[in-house]
């Protein structure tokens, strides 16, 4: 656990950010709904009693916010979503409750963080995933075409299918 006064939990989505902050000195809870702009989030966190630490769940919004907060000197933990301990019986799931849970877990130093990749590492990962997606798409299309031809009585007897002759 760091020496931060304020623990901030963020539930980050493409169109909104739900924020909850716990002041460790006064116990005050501060909630806010923000637009998903790094500068807006950064300004809001800077306006809290400092120093502050921030946590949000890893997800499709990526690591840009974590990099921006870290570059501004604010400790940021990106939580592994599968490792977040949720209270049993807690069936109601809202953005505000998720943000508060993250703030509480951060305050207790009970966040299992993922490593934030560098921009180059993230770009390489995206490239590899995109290539794998395209290869999968190509295989599905090849199967679809071959099954269509088979349904219409066309069978290829010229050796191995899908060689350079076919592309």
Automatic annotation (TrEMBL):
GO terms for molecular function: DNA binding; transposase activity. It comes from the Bacteria. Signal peptide: none annotated. One of its GO terms (biological process) is DNA transposition. Residues 8-151 form the Transposase IS110-like N-terminal domain. InterPro entries: Transp_IS110-like_N, Transpos_IS110. This is Transposase.
């Amino acid at each position: 656990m760091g020496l931060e006064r304020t623990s901030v939990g963020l539930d980050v989505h493409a169109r909104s950010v739900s924020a909850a902050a716990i002041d460790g000195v006064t116990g005050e809870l501060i909630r806010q709904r923000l637009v998903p702009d790094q500068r807006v989030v950064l300004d809001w966190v800077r306006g809290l009693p400092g120093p502050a630490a921030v946590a949000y769940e890893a997800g499709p919004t990526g690591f840009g916010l974590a990099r921006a907060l870290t570059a501004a000197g604010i400790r940021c933990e990106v939580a592994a979503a599968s490792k977040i301990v949720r209270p049993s019986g807690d069936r109601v799931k809202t953005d505000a409750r998720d943000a508060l849970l993250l703030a509480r877990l951060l305050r207790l130093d009970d966040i299992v963080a993922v490593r934030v990749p560098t921009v180059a590492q993230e770009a390489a990962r995206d490239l590899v995933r995109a290539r794998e997606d395209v290869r999968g798409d190509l295989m599905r299309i090849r199967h679809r075409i071959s099954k269509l031809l088979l349904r219409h009585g066309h069978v290829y007897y010229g050796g191995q299918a899908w060689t350079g002759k076919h592309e």
